[in-house]
Structure formats: structure tokens, C-alpha cells
Amino acid sequence: MKIANILDRVYQDFIMPSRLEEYRKILLEISENDFEQISIRDFLMLDMGKKISGKFCVHRHDIDTDLKTAKKMFQIEKDLGVRSTFYFRLKTLDKDFMQQIQAYGSEVGYHYEEIASYAKEAKLSNREHIHSALPEIQEQFLKNLSYIRNYSQCAIETVSSHGDFVNRKIEMPNYKILEGLNLWDQFELKLEAYNPDFNDYFEFRVRDKQGTKKWTHPFKLSSFSDTSNILILTHPRHWNKNILVNLEDNLMRIYEGVKWKLGI
Fold first, then answer.
1. Residue 133: which residues within 8 A CB-CB, separation 6 or more?
2. What pLDDT, on the 0 to 100 scale, is given for residue 63?
3. CATH code of the domain containing 252
4. Is residue 256 exposed (0-12), middle (13-18) or buried (19+ Cβ within 10 Å)?
5. Other C-beta atoms within 10 Å of 154: how many?
6. Domain range for residue 21?
7. Measured between alpha carbons, how far is 124 from 121 in angstroms, rounded to an integer?
């Protein structure tokens, strides 16, 4: 990891002041520019926004670590009448929170990582070995998906691939386990959020970044106010520091990285 990225991570995890008021202002500005702010599921139900005329901003949150901040972002959205999609990892499941999201009208989804988990558990760094194990990994994905549906009692209709350090090392993203499969027939899913056909519907897409970087593109509403469809991906960790959670997660990443590299 580059020194600049390490410094950005330290700033974000342990120093950065809350950006939640900034998040509220962004949502207000989007509404003031006549965008309806909805979840991925809502957008699919509108046939990718084509069933009715209007301007749509689709919100997606990947909850990698910080449930506390995710709950604060959800409360801001409730205050402003915004709906969105929250993707939970196995390690960030929270039954009560998930049911609150669904009851409000936003969406609960699964932020899956079975390829990375398998590679770490089996101590594999060879992409071909992992590829040969895809049927087993797909079966584990189905088991985990069924578990989350039963645990949360939520309708999980879309999923999104989590990016782990192992995926970057082996150059194999987690969504590879779903390629070529019929999502509905085999998993009763409507969408994988990284599907390029889905993402091509959006004239402007932006993702938050850690620390001082903030966004993948300059986030000025004037740059896309004339567009019809916007997709915004955020991670709660990037909006408010949670020192103990961040420290635990960073230490676990170091531990897993060393263990996987040494094959132990």
C-alpha cells in the first residue's frame, strides 16, 4: 500500500471529523434539483426508470464495517424521505436494523465475498485452483444467502460483490462466482449490482473514497443536474470515524494478510 493511502486511512479511521452533515446537505441538494432518491430495487421495478418520467438518484451503501454510522445515515435518509439499498456482509448483519430498513421501504441486500473467504480458508493464491473450486464456492454462496434471508426475514433480491485484499492479489473479484448463472432460477435474485448493463443506465456514477479524497469524481451537482439517472455508492466508514471498530478491522486485515501470504 502506498504511503499516501496509509496516511489517508489513518486520517479517516482515527482523526477525520464527522461528514454526516455534509451527507445530509448532499441529499437535500439532490432533492432540490428534482431527483427522486430511490433504492436499486425501486429502480428495477420502474424498468430502469423508464416506466414513468422523471429524474432518479439511486443510492447504494456497502456496509463493510461500521454499523453505527450506517444507522445514522439511514436516520438522515428517513428524515428526508430518501430510500436506498444497504448491502450487509456476514460480519455486519444486524437483524433489527435490517428489518427497520425494510419496514421503511428501503432495500436490504447481501454484500458477498465467498471467493475471498474460500481463498483465505483454503490458503490458496492460485487463481486456477480457485476457479476449479467455483461449484463449491457457489454452493457456499447459496447457503449464506439462505441464512441471511432466514435470519433477517428480509426479501434479499439484489447482491453486490465485496472487494477484499485477496481479490486484488489473485485478480479475481467475488462476482466471478455468479457469471454465466441464471440469478433468478438459481438464487431468486434480480441483480448483481456490478452488472455492466445495469450500470450503463446511469449517466453519472460516483463512489466515495477514503480520507481526504472523498469522491471518485468531483461531486458538484451542477455537473450532472441535467441528467436523468444518477448512481451513488457510499461506505459508512468514509463518513464518520469509529475508532474501536476501525482499529479492530485494521488489525484483522493485517493478521489475515500475513496468514494468507505465509500459507498458515
1. 118, 122, 124
2. 98
3. 3.20.20
4. middle
5. 20
6. 3-262
7. 8
Residues 28 and 221 sit within 8 Å (Cβ to Cβ):
no
**The dihedral of CA 144, 150, 152, 156: what is its sign?**
positive
Angle at 249 between CA 245 and CA 250, to 5 degrees: 120
More confident residue, 223 or 20: 20
Q: What is the average pLDDT value for the chain, to the nearest integer?
A: 92
User: Residue-wise over 54-89: b if at least 16 C-beta within 10 A, else e?
Assistant: ebbbbbbbbbbbbbebbbbbbebbeeeebbbbbbbb
Structural domain count of the chain: 1
Q: Is the dihedral angle over the CA atoms 161, 164, 169, 170 positive or is it negative?
A: negative
State the Cα–Cα distance between residues 172 and 94, nearest whole angstrom: 28
Q: Cβ contacts of residue 173 below 8 Å, gap of 6+?
A: 115, 161, 163, 167, 194
Over the Cα atoms of the chain, what is R_g? 19
Phi, psi of 190 (to 5 degrees): -95, -25
Q: Where are the alpha helices (DSSP H) in the chain?
A: 3-14, 20-32, 40-45, 67-80, 95-104, 114-122, 127-132, 134-152, 165-170, 183-187, 196-199, 243-262
For residue range 113-129, list pLDDT tens digits in order.
999 999 999 998 888 99
